[in-house]
Amino acid sequence: MSEQNVIVQQVGNRLDIILNRPDRKNAITQQLAVELRDAFLNVPTDVGCILLSGSGGAFCSGIDLKVAGADLKNEPLTAWVEVHAAIYQCRVPIVVALERYAINAGAALALAANVVVAGETSFLQVGEIAMGVAAPMCQAWLHLKHSPAVADRVVLVGDRIVGASLTELGLVSEIVADSDVAQRARDVADHIASHPQRGRDGISRTWDALRGRIDDPDEWFASLIRKF
Which CDD domains match (predicted)? Predict the structure, then answer.
């Protein structure tokens, strides 16, 4: 039996979704994307919060170029778009434990979360501009959640954004000691999961009313890939 690229385990009302390719710094392949998409599409009804993390003490280094190829314009990871549509449609709050780094496609996963806990030396980087390509999934979440000024700074500069700068830009919720990221993220996820479901649902509906909803997330995210 092949090893799982994504580990899914429920702990009380918390659902842990763990990227599980530590030998490749949890880099994303087509198979990992399929498993991740399915995890978000099949969240149990009694789950109050999702904790998304990476195995081996790091979050995600982006798309595995060794497998996918360097030319991202071909977008070989067709399931990757479906991952983001599934996250968008997920009605359960998502907490990310950002250990060490979230790079490019990994940054997109962090940007998609409701709450991000990062370490003092953790960094987030949307560096596709230096590769000569757009960053459609990162840009999608920056557009949905952040101001144009923050979005432009992140994608046009393309540098590593570290520690306190992450909170100053509003990209993460809090910074803790590197050794405390995993535990703090679990604590936050457990706390969110402990709230009454009607409260979480009411907050989601209110955000929908204020922000609007995308009618067809699958097509919306896919259209961003087709534009470049």
Answer: crotonase-like (cd06558)
